[in-house]
Structures are given as C-alpha cells and as structure tokens.
Amino acid sequence: MIQSSNSSGRHIQSDLFQEQVSKVDWFLVHLLRIFDLGRNIKIQDIDFSISQAKALSLFEDGTEFTMTELSNLLKVSLPTATEMVDRLVKAKLATRKRNKSDRRVVMVALSPFGKRIKNEFLQHKRNIIEEVLVKLPEEERNELVKAMERTIELLDSIKGKWSENKVVTGSSS
Predict the structure, then answer these.
(1) At a CB cut-off of 8 Å and minimum separation 6, what does 64 contact?
(2) Is 30 domain-assigned?
(3) Which of 53, 62, 109, 133 has the greatest count of CB atoms below 10 A from its CB?
(4) Alpha-carbon dihedral of residues 135, 141, 143, 146, nearest 10 degrees?
(5) Could you tell me if residue 115 is inside a domain?
(6) Run of H or E including 64
(7) 133 belongs to a structural domain
(8) Is 21 inside any structural domain?
(9) DSSP code string of the chain
(10) Would the pTM count as exceeding 0.70?
(11) 14: which residues sit within 8 A by CB, 6+ positions away?
C-alpha cells in the first residue's frame, strides 16, 4: 500500500483509500436525502422544519429547557432558537412559562400535542429504518450496526478537532 502525508501530517493511503473516502461521502449525502433532511416534514397536517424536528426530539417526558440551553443543544443562535420556539408554540407543539425561581428565565416544554407529534415523527423515522433492515440478513444487520457504532466512536474521538467554525480553504500552508 502506498502512503504519503498531506499538509496536516495525516497519511493518505493509495487510490483505494481515496475511493473509499469518496464512497463514504456519497453515502452520507445519499442518506441525508433519503431521510429528507433539509426539507419540511408533515405530520398531521403540520409542517415543521428538520430543525424543529430536532428540537422536538430533545425533549424527554417532563423535560424543560431555557432558550439558551436549546440554542446550545441545537447549535443555533439564540434568536434562531427563539424563532423556532415561536413556531412550535404557534403550532401548539410547545409551551413557554416563566421559571418560578427567576422570572426573567423562560422555560420551554412540549405540550401534550407536541409529545404526540414527536412520538409520531420518531415512529416514522423508525419505520423507515425497519423497512431497510428487514431486507438484510441478520449477519449483515449486525455488521452494519457494528460499523456504525465504530464510526460514531471515531467521530466522537475527533469532534473537537473539526470545529464547525473552521473555514476550509484550498490553500495548503
């Protein structure tokens, strides 16, 4: 196997390795398209964005978040989180209330209707996954799960290294 180093000191293996990188890149893009990420989702005649769906999925039974906590968890600005919550409240999916110990703090929680919609969304996503997995033999399902677990483990180990705020340029220094 031919190896060389790029400007960051990482090893670049053979053409086969580069082909594998391209295939994984294609796979990720294709997977996002399959799950319709980036488009609006419609459940029970309610349209909501994937960001709103992500927000809904953060809430466990009885969980409440401050606006700052939500913006941090969703990795969006506070004004963006506020707009998102405004739309969730308007659709009766979430509620706002003042914190009892500090009236300046607004707490956000799912409404009973929001909990039902969240569960329907999660079930919809689960149905898609089941439809795919049922077509694979058990051994291939096990291999897929093992590979995905390892991928997540590796991504978690480098996540600080690849900040979303870094600018990618074509220059190498």
Answers:
(1) 107, 108, 109
(2) no
(3) 53
(4) 140
(5) yes
(6) strand 64-66
(7) yes
(8) no
(9) --EEE-TTS-EEETHHHHHHHHHHHHHHHHHHHHTTTTS-EEETTEEE-HHHHHHHHH--TT-EEEHHHHHHHHT--HHHHHHHHHHHHHTTSEEEEE-SS-TTPEEEEE-HHHHHHHHHHHHHHHHHHHHHHTTS-HHHHHHHHHHHHHHHHHHHHHTTTS-TTPPP-S---
(10) no
(11) 1, 2, 3
Say what percent of the chain tops pLDDT 70: 74
- Total structural domains in the chain? 1
The count of C-alpha atoms lying within 13 angstroms of the C-alpha of 107, restricted to the half-sphere facing its C-beta, is: 14
Check residue 39 and give its pLDDT: 53
pLDDT at 102: 85
CATH of the domain at 100: 1.10.10.10
pLDDT digits (tens, 9 = 90+) for 109-119: 999 999 988 88
Give pLDDT, residue 172: 47
Residue 106 token pair: 């607004």
Length of the chain as a residue count: 173
Q: Containing domain of residue 51, as a range?
A: 40-157
As given in the structure block, the two tokens for residue 34 are: 């399959």
Please tell me the distance from the alpha carbon of residue 71 to that of residue 81, in angstroms, as a whole number: 5
Q: Six-digit token pair at 30?
A: 């294709």
